[in-house]
């Protein structure tokens, strides 16, 4: 059975001010934190042991997810004292697992980038990895314009031939979609307690040395939620309708939510409230007659009656402008 590692230690710089108090993977999208969507995807693929590789605001994860029993999973937490890069984070997280036993049982590791929403089949990616006896298998997607990404060319069998940086004329539109299957021997080769980038070091080094690195191509829903605009789009896509609301949330008479808005659990929405294209966290109180449009209201916030909140980030301690368009 494969083991999951979620890379959830990033600072979320492009998402500020949304990440001032909440780590990027814990931001709500479609009513649930990004990390919860990823855990549900992992469980669907049969992965029930997952390590969260945390760093920035690491203390936010444990109170929400605990030991994972609520989801029928076993969760472990690897906290980096200093950011170690993607490779260093993977190696640090693997310290919580008996790597020698994993190698003996040929137990794969599935690595998830913490800022990606993907609907691809992880189970099919694992099967492809095993069929090709690969060291690493990356999920690849084809984008219309790969100039903003590094691209990943493959041969006819799907074997990766190079990892190329951003360029004006990409040789392929296939890009790294941020979900990897690692054989345990590859993880044990990553230096411990050292900053390592799998994208810039581990992957290219393995390809250049002739090791079997493959790309699993599946053109499914995929989104990098690294900017406010992308976060709002991801939430609208998941809601796929007028709005979604969490358990325990109540609406006063004549209140209305539209535009793919998502509203968390245990919120109190007053009379005559209008919510449009917005993300509302848990335990939020919104006074009667308030208008909230294109805004992000963090957990535990309170919106006064008749307030006009447009293109704002509101938390219990901050009220700042954002650009969600």
Write the layout of secondary structure elements.
Blueprint: E1 3-7, E2 28-29, E3 32-33, H1 34-44, E4 49-54, H2 61-65, E5 74-79, H3 85-94, H4 99-104, E6 109-113, E7 116-118, H5 122-131, E8 136-142, E9 174-182, H6 184-188, H7 198-208, E10 213-217, E11 222-224, H8 228-239, E12 243-245, E13 250-251, E14 256-258, E15 261-263, E16 268-269, E17 274-276, E18 279-280, E19 285-286, E20 291-293, E21 296-297, E22 302-303, E23 308-310, E24 312-314, E25 319-321
Parallel strand pairs: 1-4, 1-6, 4-5, 8-10, 12-15, 13-16, 14-17, 15-18, 16-19, 17-20, 18-21, 19-22, 20-23, 21-24
Antiparallel strand pairs: 2-3, 6-9, 7-11, 8-9, 24-25
Helix pairs in contact: 3-7
Protein described:
The protein is of the alpha/beta class and 325 residues long. It has two domains: 222 residues, Spore Coat Polysaccharide Biosynthesis Protein SpsA, Chain A (Alpha-Beta Complex), CATH 3.90.550; 81 residues, 3 Solenoid (UDP N-Acetylglucosamine Acyltransferase, domain 1). It is 22% helix and 27% strand. The protein contains eight helices and 25 strands. The strands form six sheets. The protein has a seven-stranded mixed sheet, with helices on both faces. The chain has a six-stranded mixed sheet with strand order 12-15-18-21-24-25, covered by helices on one side. The chain has a four-stranded parallel sheet with strand order 13-16-19-22, with no helix packed on it. The longest helix is centred in the C-terminal third of the chain and has 12 residues. The protein is elongated, with a radius of gyration of 21 Å. The N and C termini lie far apart (42 Å). The model has no long low-confidence stretch (mean pLDDT 91). Pfam families: GMPPB_C, NTP_transferase.
